[in-house]
């Protein structure tokens, strides 16, 4: 099992929860030093990678499988924030956030799927955000990257229909992590979150996220949506995708070889 963004936050909790469930985890983050204590505690393996660098992403699955064995479950958890007015953000911000939050997960899926199929199956988990469903000031780049990841996962599920690879899309609201704390860096974003909390938004502990993702993989569930009160919003976005699935019933989803 490969987990990106594993050195802290949700990724760390995922690594701990899956190890408890019996998995052997391959841990990916930028820094070896940040991964080694967790890998030692969990008897996992360390694979330092900068996901903002496409050249490192291009060889990651091969490198992990050479060093740690087959990747039967891929968890694309790594993500970075962008909290600023879109036009005033640093020059490289759009490319960097899109690369880490969307392009790297998509590329890792592209690398992993043929290997999973050769071995008879696998499971892909993409950790997205409810920010991909709504627009807050200061989150344009971040939200767009998460919306892309969510829709990519739906498209991937359509491509894989009938094949022995399952997908789980994780759509999360506010989870107390370093990433959430950075929402305060831009006043309009901070005030938007304050309004959301006053109207009933609740945080989800990262340990609960990890527990629900483990259950989703074990039970082949296609979605994890937390907090649960957010599910109706996500279902509104999901409705056209589900309608397309029904409309395409009986249509081949893979080309004949």
Can you give a write-up of this model?
51% of the residues lie in helices and 12% in strands. The protein has helices spanning 9-20, 32-42, 54-57, 60-68, 93-119, 140-160, 178-181, 187-198, 206-218, 231-247, and strands at 2-4, 26-28, 45-46, 73-76, 122-129, 165-172, 223-226. Strands 3-2-1-4-5-6-7 form a seven-stranded parallel sheet, with helices on both faces.
What is the element layout, followed by pairings?
Elements lengths: L1 E3 L4 H12 L5 E3 L3 H11 L2 E2 L7 H4 L2 H9 L4 E4 L16 H27 L2 E8 L10 H21 L4 E8 L5 H4 L5 H12 L7 H13 L4 E4 L4 H17 L10
Parallel strand pairs: 1-2, 1-4, 2-3, 4-5, 5-6, 6-7
Helix pairs in contact: 1-9, 5-6
Features:
globular, 10 helices, alpha/beta, 7-stranded parallel sheet, 7 strands, 12% strand, 257 residues
Summarize the structure.
This protein has 257 residues and is of the alpha/beta class. The chain contains 10 helices and 7 strands.
| Quaternary structure of the protein | single chain
Q: Tell me about the biggest sheet?
A: 7 strands, parallel
Radius of gyration: 18 Å
Q: What gap, in angstroms, lies between the N and C termini? A: 30 Å
Proportion in helices:
40-55%
> What's the overall average pLDDT, rounded?
95
Give the H and E element order. EHEHEHHEHEHEHHHEH
How many helices? The count is 10
Helices and strands: which structural class? alpha/beta
**Which outline best applies?**
globular
Query: How do the strands line up in the largest sheet?
Result: 3-2-1-4-5-6-7
Number of strands: 7
Strand residues, percent = 5-15%
The stretches of 5 or more residues where confidence is low (pLDDT under 50) are none
């Amino acid at each position: 099992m490969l987990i990106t963004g594993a050195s802290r936050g949700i990724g760390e909790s995922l690594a701990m929860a899956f190890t408890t469930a019996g998995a052997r985890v391959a841990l990916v983050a930028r820094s070896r030093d940040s991964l080694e204590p967790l890998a030692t505690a969990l008897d996992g393996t360390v694979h330092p990678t900068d996901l903002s660098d496409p050249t490192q992403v291009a060889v990651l699955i091969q490198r992990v499988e050479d060093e740690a064995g087959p990747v039967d479950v891929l968890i694309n958890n790594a993500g970075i924030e962008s909290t600023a007015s879109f036009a005033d953000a640093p020059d490289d911000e759009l490319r960097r956030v899109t690369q880490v939050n969307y392009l790297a997960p998509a590329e890792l899926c592209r690398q992993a799927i043929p290997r999973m199929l050769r071995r008879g199956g696998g499971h892909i988990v993409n950790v997205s955000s409810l920010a991909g469903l709504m627009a807050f000031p200061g989150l344009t780049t971040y939200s767009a990257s998460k919306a892309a990841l969510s829709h990519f996962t739906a498209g991937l599920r359509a491509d894989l229909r009938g094949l022995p690879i399952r997908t789980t899309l994780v759509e999360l609201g506010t989870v107390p992590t370093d990433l959430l704390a950075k929402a305060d860096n831009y006043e309009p974003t901070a005030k938007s979150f304050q309004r959301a909390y006053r109207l009933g938004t609740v945080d989800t502990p990262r340990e609960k996220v990890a527990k629900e993702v483990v259950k989703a993989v074990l039970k082949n569930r296609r979605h994890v949506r937390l907090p649960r009160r957010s599910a109706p919003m996500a279902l509104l976005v999901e409705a056209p995708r589900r309608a397309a699935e029904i409309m395409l019933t009986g249509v081949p989803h893979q080309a004949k070889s």
